[in-house]
Amino acid sequence: MSTAPQTSATSYFQRMKQEGRWNHHRAQQPGPALPVLKFTPAEDLVFEEARRAEARREIHATPDTEAHGDIWYCGNAAGEAREFFKLFERGVSDLKTLRADIGINVWQMEDMNRWKGWNPRIASSLQRMIAHREKVLALFDALVSRGTAPRTTAAD
Description:
Layout: H1 5-28, H2 41-60, H3 77-90, H4 95-102, H5 106-118, H6 123-146
Helix pairs in contact: 3-6
């Protein structure tokens, strides 16, 4: 057998062609079909969103901070309600304005519903954010109902 480069390449290509034919015939043979994991499109969206959220948390995590690289992370509802209540106590803003800042009005809700229609991947994030806003508003109202009247400053 010759070891010339042309001969080696020719034998290599012939062997690859034979293996290709054998693999093709092998793939054509009928056999038992194993069940494949199949998910609905909605389940695929949820899994994809969870995977991306986890990847963002890993990217932005540092030893000094918590892993909240997600732009949709809502934070602590009780802490946020306390901060709004502090604004109310200091007299920075009135109760109606603070409730409007915390809550979601009708046109904002319509806007978010349109976003959900355009991009179903953010639907669960929007629902989580809406639930968070409602929880903050409920906690704020509870603080106001058992809290004191707003203090006036010396400048007033």
